[in-house]
Amino acid sequence: MYIFINPDNSVNYANNHPVNWHLFHEGLRLIEFPEKELFEVVKDIPPEYARWDEELQEVYHAPDFLPEKLELNERRRLARERIVSKYPVFKQMNIMRSGDEKEIEKMGKYIDEYRAWSNDHSRGIEELEKIEASFDATQ
């Protein structure tokens, strides 16, 4: 098991197979786990959240680790994840078909707030938690 660690301790690469050394970039550190498999070291942590703990010598989940300036596609992906976690497509369809104006308006505001965040690069990643909290507080 091999891991490349970036200078900021984010995980650059993890695999059970050795890497080609010509891919090695300056500043990266290579850590080898000869007796372990990938899932034992990286677990099920998504790459964008994987950080290396030097003291514990393990990978951990860091939800706050995301670039400050996210690409538009990444912003849209994050917004979509939040939207469909609360309103999966089937639920959106059911709400729209029910005709309950109050529920339609509530869902629309929720979706619109995340869409607005995804299109506004001046709003940071911390805003996502604020959006969720503001909707939880009104229920």
Structure characterization notes:
The structure is a single chain. This protein is an alpha+beta fold and 139 residues long. The protein folds into two domains: 2-61, no CATH class; 72-137, no CATH class. It has helices at 38-41, 72-86, 89-98, 101-119, 126-137, and strands at 2-5, 11-15, 29-32, 50-53, 58-61. The protein has a three-stranded antiparallel beta sheet, with no helix packed on it. Strands 4-5 form a two-stranded antiparallel ribbon. A hairpin with a 5-residue loop joins strand 1 and strand 2 (11-15). The mean pLDDT is 79.
Give the N-terminus to C-terminus distance in angstroms. Answer: 47 Å
Mean pLDDT: 79
- How does the helix and strand content classify structurally? alpha+beta
* Uncertain parts: none
Number of continuous helical runs: 5
Give the SSE string.
EEEHEEHHHH
Instruction: Tell me the overall shape.
Output: elongated
* E-strand count: 5
Largest sheet: 3 strands, antiparallel
What are the SSEs and their pairings?
Layout: E1 2-5, E2 11-15, E3 29-32, H1 38-41, E4 50-53, E5 58-61, H2 72-86, H3 89-98, H4 101-119, H5 126-137
Antiparallel strand pairs: 1-2, 1-3, 4-5
Helix pairs in contact: 2-4, 4-5
Descriptive terms for the model:
single chain, 139 residues, alpha+beta, 2 domains, three-stranded antiparallel β-sheet, two-stranded antiparallel ribbon, 5 helices, 5 strands, 43% helix
